[in-house]
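tokens incoming
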């Protein structure tokens, strides 16, 4: 395939994907930075600016050096440490296709690291800002992340299938769980409820109800893992009026209570 055509396909893929930043910042770490993290619900990007460190995954032992950026995909257990000091910008994020599945759930990064180069200046400019301000530099971060995506994961036909469900997918992103009815979602897409359900299942290989649950659980895990709000506030933000119902719902789908999950999820900075 000609290079120009590949670039157009790749650009179209990125433009139609959902890039969401959950947490970010700059950290100066010492030898106390060591431990492990079990299947975090987001991808992690580390841009190393000084010092050195080590991250162990199931596939390799990766040395962290200044001038390089490293990506550790969603749900990948890691052990991390530094013997001296380590300075880095970090970002926890998702890059979703179909507003459903993270690209790094489908395909593991084809390389462990890339050269950060001059991009670090733009990235560091927003390292102390809010996520909203940081999105002004989203193109730089997305460009960096895209270098980790294998070419085999860019499917030209994917976006065409997605577009007919776009109105429903946007509603699922915005509306509280209790307001999401099949009749409403199908009407937004101009389909009957029966046809909508069948086509959704055929396209995404998951039924509508399970898709909604997956999205709710993904958001819940990210909010709880950060530990900045109470379980009650997390429940309300996701459309649950009853904190105890949310706790039962969360435990049913994870095996853990929200409090246990929040207290035992170690943040890797």
């Amino acid at each position: 395939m000609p290079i120009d055509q590949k670039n157009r396909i790749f650009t179209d893929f990125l433009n139609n994907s959902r890039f969401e930043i959950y947490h970010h910042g700059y950290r100066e770490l010492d030898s106390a930075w060591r431990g492990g993290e079990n299947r975090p619900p987001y991808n992690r990007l580390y841009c190393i600016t000084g010092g050195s460190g080590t991250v162990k995954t199931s596939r390799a032992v990766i040395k962290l050096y200044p001038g390089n950026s490293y990506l550790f995909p969603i749900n990948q257990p890691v052990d991390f440490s530094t013997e001296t000091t380590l300075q880095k910008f970090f970002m926890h994020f998702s890059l979703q296709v179909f507003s459903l599945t993270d690209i790094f759930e489908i395909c593991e990064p084809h390389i462990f690291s890339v050269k950060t180069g001059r991009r670090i200046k733009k990235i560091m400019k927003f390292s102390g800002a809010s996520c909203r301000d940081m999105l002004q530099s989203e193109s730089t971060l997305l460009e960096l992340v895209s270098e980790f995506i294998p070419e085999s994961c860019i499917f030209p036909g994917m976006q065409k299938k997605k577009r007919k469900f776009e109105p429903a997918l946007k509603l699922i992103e915005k509306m509280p769980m209790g307001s999401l009815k099949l009749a409403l979602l199908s009407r937004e897409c101009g389909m009957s409820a029966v046809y909508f359900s069948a086509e959704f299942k055929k396209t995404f290989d998951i039924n509508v109800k399970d898709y909604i649950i997956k999205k709710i659980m993904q958001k819940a895990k990210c909010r709880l893992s950060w530990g900045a709000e109470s379980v009650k506030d997390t429940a309300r933000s996701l459309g649950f009026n009853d904190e105890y119902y949310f706790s039962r719902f969360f435990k049913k789908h994870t095996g853990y209570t929200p409090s246990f999950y929040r207290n035992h999820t170690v943040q890797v900075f």
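note: The beta strands are 18-29, 34-37, 43-51, 53-56, 61-64, 68-72, 78-81, 86-97, 101-102, 113-115.
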